[in-house]
Every structure is written in structure tokens, then in C-alpha cells.
């Protein structure tokens, strides 16, 4: 069995193929999906879909790259939203230092408020950290955040990996490691302990090597697992089992209230 620890299956692009995709995923043993919210306006649709698909879990939050329309009032509502069915985390939250990202002062304010919500609810977080690992770590320390989570699409150094792992996080490993040119990521992944990473696709984004320009789906997870197995010289069944265990450890509410 495989779990996709980060996929945006609520996005409209999946509307006309979601049911068929879920069937195909089941045929390929991809049987669990963590779907993190992006904007406030996405929360209600995600809640409906999590009720419809028992193999989905949700994280609610305000994504740092899409804060343009956000208001602090929405964070007041985040706690209530996290009482909804299937919630395992707050996310995706974090800091995005891409050149055209939202003003950093605003991002920092939203990030720290959402970390407070996660702390109050004793929930882990799904972290989005683009070119911002050290700043995100500084914020986690300042917030004295204790509930861990996943660093989504990790592509930092071995030192940055160690800091997050020591702070209770696992690293999200996705399609970038299928590219032969990702040598640094391969070296970091090869040196990780078995306990310290999970698999993700970031669907519909981040296509695998050889699939550029195509819609990415959780069906890529077995291919990512195969790449991980090759890079680490382990067998793929072990990677599948260990990464599922890791995910369930980091998101302890995963199996609560399952039908
Ligand atoms: Zn995402």
C-alpha cells in the first residue's frame, strides 16, 4: 500500500476525472491521500470531498503563496474548520521566498498565527517552504512548535534536513528525485534514516521525469517509490511500508474515526 502525503485532488482540474482516478489509484495500491488546503475559499469543497472519499484526509490552512485575498478573520475560523471530519494537520502553511511571492512581513504574520492554531489544537503541520528553510525553522523555534509534521517537497541540504528531523518533522519526497540531474537531492535522500521521509506527488503539479507537461496524479507514487528504492539500494516494498508507517506516526489522527 502507498499513501500520497501531499496532493491537491480538490483542484478543479480533477473535477471530471476524480472518481475514475480514485478507482485507478486503488488498482495500483495507492490507498491514502492527504489533501492540504490552499485558500479559505477552498475549504468547503475540500470538506465535502473528504466526506465523499473515505481514503482522503485533510489539512486546512492558508498557503503562503496565495495570501493575496486572505484576511486574519479567516484564521479565527481555522480552529473551527479543523474540527471537521478527516482533519489530520494544519496546512499547507509556511513561507515562500519566490521572487513574485506575497510581502514577507505579511507571510510571517500568517505563518506564526497558523502555528499558534496548530499548537492550540495539538495538530502537526504541512509545511510549504520555498527557498526559506532557515527562516521557517527560525519561526518554528520562536513558536516553540512541538507537534511536527511534513516538510513538503523537501530539496534542502543534509544539514537543513537534520534540523527539521531533529525538530520532529519528516521530509516529503516527490517527483524531483526522478530527474537524473537532481544529484544533490539524491545524495541527501540516500543518507536519510528510514524513519525520516514520506512520499508525495504535489498533484497536479511537479510532473515526473519523462512526464513533463502532463497532469501529475497520485498514480506517480509507485514510480517515485521505485526511484527512492533505487537511490537508496532498498526494495520498493520496504519503501512503501516504511513511508506509510512514517506518515501514520507523524499524523496520529490519520486512523481516528475512519469508516
Ligand atoms: Zn501543495
From TrEMBL:
UniProt entry keywords in alphabetical sequence: Hydrolase
Pfam family membership, one: TatD_DNase
Highest taxon, organism lineage: Bacteria
UniProt keyword Hydrolase present: yes
InterPro entries associated with the record: DNase_TatD-rel_CS, Metal_Hydrolase, TatD-like
Family assignment from sequence similarity: Belongs to the metallo-dependent hydrolases superfamily. TatD-type hydrolase family.
PANTHER family (alphabetical): D-AMINOACYL-TRNA DEACYLASE (PTHR46124), HYDROLASE (PTHR46124:SF3)
Name used for this protein in its record: DNAse
Amino acid at each position: 500500500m502507498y499513501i500520497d502525503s501531499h496532493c491537491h485532488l480538490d483542484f478543479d482540474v480533477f473535477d471530471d476525472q476524480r472518481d475514475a482516478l480514485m478507482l485507478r489509484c486503488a488498482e495500483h495500491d495507492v490507498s491514502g491521500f492527504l489533501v492540504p488546503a490552499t485558500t479559505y475559499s477552498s475549504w468547503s469543497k475540500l470538506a465535502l470531498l473528504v466526506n465523499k472519499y473515505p481514503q482522503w484526509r485533510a489539512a486546512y490552512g492558508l498557503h503562503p503563496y496565495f495570501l493575496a485575498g486572505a484576511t486574519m478573520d479567516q484564521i479565527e475560523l481555522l480552529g473551527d474548520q479543523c474540527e471537521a471530519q478527516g482533519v489530520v494537520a494544519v496546512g499547507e502553511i509556511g513561507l515562500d521566498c519566490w521572487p513574485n511571492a506575497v510581502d514577507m512581513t505579511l507571510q510571517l504574520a500568517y505563518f506564526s498565527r497558523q502555528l499558534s492554531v496548530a499548537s492550540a489544537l495539538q495538530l502537526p503541520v504541512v509545511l510549504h517552504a520555498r527557498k526559506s528553510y532557515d527562516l521557517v525553522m527560525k519561526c518554528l523555534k520562536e513558536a516553540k512548535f512541538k507537534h511536527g509534521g511534513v516538510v513538503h517537497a523537501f530539496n534542502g541540504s543534509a544539514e537543513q534536513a537534520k534540523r527539521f528531523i531533529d525538530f520532529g518533522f519528516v521530509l516529503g519526497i516527490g517527483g524531483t528525485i526522478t530527474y537524473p540531474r537532481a544529484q544533490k537531492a539524491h545524495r541527501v535522500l540516500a543518507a536519510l534514516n528510514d524513519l525520516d521521509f514520506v512520499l508525495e506527488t504535489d498533484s497536479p503539479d511537479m510532473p515526473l521525469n519523462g512526464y513533463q507537461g502532463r497532469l501529475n496524479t497520485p498514480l506517480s507514487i509507485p514510480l517515485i517509490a521505485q526511484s527512492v528504492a533505487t537511490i537508496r539500494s532498498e526494495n520498493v516494498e520496504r519503501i512503501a511500508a516504511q513511508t506509510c508507517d512514517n506518515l501514520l506516526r507523524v499524523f496520529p489522527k490519520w486512523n481516528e474515526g475512519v469508516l
